[in-house]
Amino acid sequence: MENFLRPIYQERASDPKTLGILMMEKTNPNSPLTDNFDIILLIIVKEAEQEWFVKHYESAGETAAMHIVKESTLMDWIDTSSSRRAVEWVINGRVVYDRNEYISDLKRKLRDFPLQQRNLRKAIEFGKLVKSYNEAKALFTSKNYKDAHSKVFYSLHYLARLAVVEKGYYPEVTVWNQVKNIDLEIYKLYEEFIDSREEMEKKIQLMILAMDYVINHRAAASAEHLLNIMRTKGEPWSYAELKTNPFVEPYKLDLSAIISYLEEKEIILPVLEETKGVGVFHRKYRISNF
């Protein structure tokens, strides 16, 4: 199959807009990492008419998918976890073309996982976590135990991804294999939930209590990206100001859940400002120790 693809990627390599080309091969019969294609060809370009172009091939019974991705789009995927597969293709893919060591530098940056990008990823995962966790609690309270069970499972998954980012790694598709090696506390929570023989109601109740402690313990550090934004001015922030801040864009859909949780834990505090209406106040927020 690679012999068939070689003329294709050699042609792309001759294009001055091409920054690098990576190849990812299927290693198992069932391979979600390669979308079950035998080969993934990732071509990173500086400029293109389409942000992301995909073409499928077949030769001698083998299949391949070619992804041509703009550099800016790929970096957005990396920063916001929009495409975990693409991140793994870059980290683990075999380099077949590297213009001016672009791919080598990119792989090195991913291994280093700079603090600024790490804080952003923590905020993204934390937002998904607290939103899912709050939904699990609400479903449990309303006695919708099967739905609550599903939400607890999703919450554990987001917690696992957060734990991986905290340790300085990018979450992979097989995130629990990562967690098993770097955060046994979270992995044991997962095992207890999966293997528990308690009745469903009791099982969910115990996990909600355990997760409350774990989430609370890491809340301030997980929300550091948002808290740093709030520190940039000495006045309280309205929700609208935070939501429209361009640096909050990657997690703005979960911003309300983050603010609600941080307020509940008194990491941030509400500030009421008078309006023209009697007894009606604008609600703003400030960091509790700032």
TrEMBL record:
Would you say which domain of life the source belongs to?
Answer: Bacteria
Pfam families attached to this UniProt entry? HTH_52 (PF18576), NTF-like (PF14540), YgxA-like_sub_bind (PF22339)
Q: Which residues form the YgxA-like substrate binding domain?
A: 120-218
Where does the Nucleotidyltransferase-like domain lie?
1-118
In terms of InterPro entries, this protein maps to: NT_sf, NTF-like, WH-like_DNA-bd_sf, YgxA-like_substrate-bd, YgxA_HTH
Task: Enumerate the spans annotated as YgxA-like helix-turn-helix domain.
Answer: 224-287
Q: What is this protein called?
A: Nucleotidyltransferase-like domain-containing protein
